[in-house]
Design goal:
The chain contains 14 helices and ten strands. Helix 5 (148-159) links the parallel strand 6 (138-141) and strand 7. It has helices at 2-28, 53-60, 78-87, 98-104, 148-159, 176-184, 197-203, 212-215, 228-233, 235-254, 256-267, 272-283, 294-303, 321-334; strands spanning 40-45, 70-75, 92-95, 109-114, 122-125, 138-141, 168-171, 190-193, 208-211, 223-227.
Length: 341
């Protein structure tokens, strides 16, 4: 009798311990076992806004720090990102097509994850300009050379038999705020931007010419870009970064009030409706499964002005090894039934 009771007690304690272990693994992923090779990461982002909310939230909530990694976030233009990565000034660039363009030019910069791969770009026209063909002989404000805006406009121009540079003039800017400012001042006939600038233009009643999210355009942006050698030397650090980022995605979805607070702080948005609309734009595109889709690379290569870029193999521009391991060991538990590995 006493022996049977003792056996039951031992079994109970065993299962209690097992449940506790599983909970700890779910809460911290592999963080109990992972030791970062690097304790501080310099992370640059291309802009602020809802597409970048999860990384700001993850940092503010301490999801990187609790795993032993300090993350410093700065804003860096797409044109300066490649050199910053190659020089070691920046470890990770959460941005868009700059990684692809740099790789085409001969560097070994790659994506290891795609935080977003569905475009939220919107092309607006001045009042009275409601179709793409109405932009013939006119100008469109966009961000930097080779960035999302240019890629999307070139793709649509090709579909309409319109030649960029001849039929439509692109006006380049440092970032979305500057592009929108040019448009609002009447110095451009069209503008192509992402949230929150797209929501600002929408709220002022400017006609939407193309909503690229509705079109289903896939472009990696922002994606986790870095030097391949950095990934090879710091796999644990990068897994910790990706797990912390995914924690940020989950918290942003589960806690809209906290997410909106961080979005307001990082984007300096004060208008309540604009804040809510921008937040919702983020919710619909944040990836839970951040594996890189070759098609999202291919669309950039096809619109490249570099000779024969379209013939390059998209697989040379990314490595899904780390994110697949993170999906298997962490994301699949964080988002049950929503992440494949």
């Amino acid at each position: 009798m006493q022996s049977g009771m003792l056996t039951k007690i031992v079994l109970i304690w065993f299962f209690v311990g097992l449940v506790g272990l599983n909970c700890r693994i779910l809460e911290g992923g592999q963080s109990l076992d992972l030791k970062p090779e690097k304790n501080k990461l310099e992370v640059a982002i291309a802009a602020t806004g809802p597409l970048y909310l999860p990384i700001f939230l993850a940092n503010e909530a301490g999801y990187f720090a609790k795993r032993g990694v300090t993350v410093n976030i700065s804003i860096l233009s797409a044109t300066a990102s490649a050199q910053a990565l190659l020089s070691g000034q920046v470890d990770i660039y959460q941005g868009g097509t700059a990684i692809i363009h740099a790789n085409v030019a001969g560097t070994d910069l790659i994506y290891v994850a795609a935080s977003v791969d569905r475009s939220t770009l919107v092309l607006f026209g001045q009042k009275g300009l409601t179709t793409f063909d109405s932009l013939r002989g006119k100008s469109v404000a966009t961000t930097s050379v080779g960035a999302f805006g240019e890629i999307a406009v070139r793709k649509t121009a090709k579909e309409h038999g319109v030649e960029i540079g001849k039929d439509i003039k692109l006006l380049y800017h440092k970032g979305p705020p500057e592009a929108l400012s040019t448009f609002l001042l009447g110095n451009a006939d069209g503008v192509i931007v992402t949230p929150p600038q797209s929501e600002m233009a929408r709220s002022k009643g400017f006609p939407v010419i193309v909503d690229y999210y509705e079109r289903g355009l896939k472009i990696v942006g922002p994606g986790t870009g870095l030097a391949r050698a950095f990934a090879q030397k710091n796999p644990n650090t990068l897994k910790i970064f990706l797990m912390g980022y995914l924690d940020g995605v989950k918290r942003a979805i589960d806690d809209p009030a906290y997410a909106s607070k961080i979005l307001a702080q990082s984007s300096k948005i004060t208008d309540a409706k604009l804040l809510e609309d921008s937040y919702q734009e983020g919710v619909k595109v944040w990836n839970k499964d951040m594996t890189v889709d070759p098609e999202a690379i291919k669309v950039v290569l096809e619109q490249s002005t570099v000779p024969k870029a379209a013939e390059l193999d998209p697989k040379r521009f990314f490595d899904n090894t780390l994110i697949r391991e993170v999906n298997r060991d962490y994301a699949a538990k964080l988002f049950p039934g929503q992440v494949k590995y």
